[in-house]
Amino acid sequence: MLPNQQEQVTLDTFLRGLWEENPVFVMVLGMCPTLAVTNSTLNALAMGLATTFVLVASGALVSLLRKVIPKQVRIATYIIIIATFVTMVDYGIQAISLDLYNALGAFIALIVVNCVILGRAEAYASKQRVGASVINALGMGGGFTFALLCLGTVRELLGKGTILGLHILPAGFQPWVVMILPPGGFFVLGGWLLLFSWLRQRKARNARKTVAAQGVPAHGR
Amino acid sequence: MAADSLTFIFLNAAIINNFVLAMFLGICPFLGVSAKKETAWNMGLATTFVMLISSMCAYGVNGLLVSLHIEFLRLICYIAVIASAVQVVEMVIKKFSPALFRALGIYLPLITTNCAVLGIALFQTAREYDFPQSLAFSIGGGVGFTLALMLMSGLREKLELAEVPDISQGAALTLMLAGLLSLAFMGFAGLGGGNA
Question: What is the pLDDT of residues B157-179, one digit of tens each?
């Protein structure tokens, strides 16, 4: 993308972050909070919403200031802007629910170093208008929350037999405690990535088959 | 072992609550630069060094913030301290050891966004460590990070020779490996008497 090219705001600006460029499943960014706080659905949801808020707010501010910030110190400026919003979220969550705050621990403060946010500020918000940045940030935040929920529900369901604290599986179910412990995070995320790459491959294979069935030779084979 | 002895803090940060495998800090470099043993070793060294410096600075800054009653600026100050520590470390290494500087190369600036470094600063504040304890904690964290990186890169170098199914290439396989390593590290939990 050229530095000064303004993107038309379309539905795609929003949807891209949700699926095609999903920060967790496709770009494999922001792994630390993804793995650390997804041992229950509620934590995952809270973390996703907090990150989305910081993404949108910092995206808007960076985009507003994009002509004022000198190029040499832009990264430092972005980090200060992000840190300001994270501090707000930190105190906000502390005021709303102390239990949640204790469950998420230092990971709220660590949103500052989530590469998704800095990546968006550098690659998108610093070049686009405010409206486009906000919509793109919403999409990215939505995608991040979606990915966190994917992990959180699976881990809570298998690890405790519940979702959002409600018992889903029958009482005879023996919980897989390992799922809510650290290794479970790695396994579940690895599993989701396997699933997605299998789906992608199958899609590519089907596309090839369709082309072959129509009698069009596929790339010199 | 007393829970606040220096040895315990060191072992706790390095092995029992390993920063990468048990606390999920610094996963990005762990997945990103663990393909070769040599780069993993250099990255580990650089990170340990920055952790030590920024932990010392953070200790001083925190004292200042508390005495001025402006703790709400803590996060902003820490991140600024880490960014400048990385910058200083980069300049010092460039001046005194160009060979090391070339070896570390692009990894130095990346350390700024390594959550393990900020994590060290935040945890040492939350646990109210004094100065020697902070030092032990940051060195332990660095050693643990390097250990995890080395183990992972060793495994991945072997895996390059193995045949794996197509769909598990890349990140998925690395994550599965990390899960196994993490499972192995859980065995160390007994060392801390379960109260880690």
Answer: 888 888 877 777 777 888 888 88
Contact predicate B12/B196, CB 8 Å: yes
Among B113, B180, B183, select the one facing A113 at the smallest CB separation.
B113
Give the C-alpha separation, A140 to B55, whole Å.
33
pLDDT digits (tens, 9 = 90+) for A174-194: 888 888 888 888 899 888 888
For A160-194, b/e burial (b = at least 16 CB within 10 A) is bbebeeeeeeeeeeeebebbbbbbbbbbbbbbbbb
Q: What distance in Å separates residue A88's CA from the closest CA in chain B?
A: 9
Q: What is the DSSP string of A3-29?
A: TTPPPP--HHHHHHHHTTT-TTTTT--
**Would the CB atoms of B186 and A184 count as touching at under 8 Å?**
no
Nearest to B75 among A28, A86, A201 (CB): A86
Q: Is the pLDDT of residue A136 over 80?
A: yes
> pTM for the full model?
0.84
Amino acid at A45: L
Nearest to A193 among B21, B27, B172 (CB): B172
Question: Within 10 Å of residue A207's Cβ, how many Cβ atoms?
Answer: 11
Task: Name the token pair of A87.
Answer: 């501090």
The answer to whether residue A1 scores a pLDDT higher than 50 is: no
Tokens 């502390």, located at residue: A94
Cα B54 from Cα B134, distance rounded (Å): 11
ipTM for the assembly: 0.81
What is the spatial distance between Cα A143 and Cα A138, in angstroms, rounded to a whole number? Answer: 8
For residue B69 the two structure tokens come to 């009653």
Res B2: pLDDT: 63
Q: Which residue of A has its CA nearest to B21?
A: A182
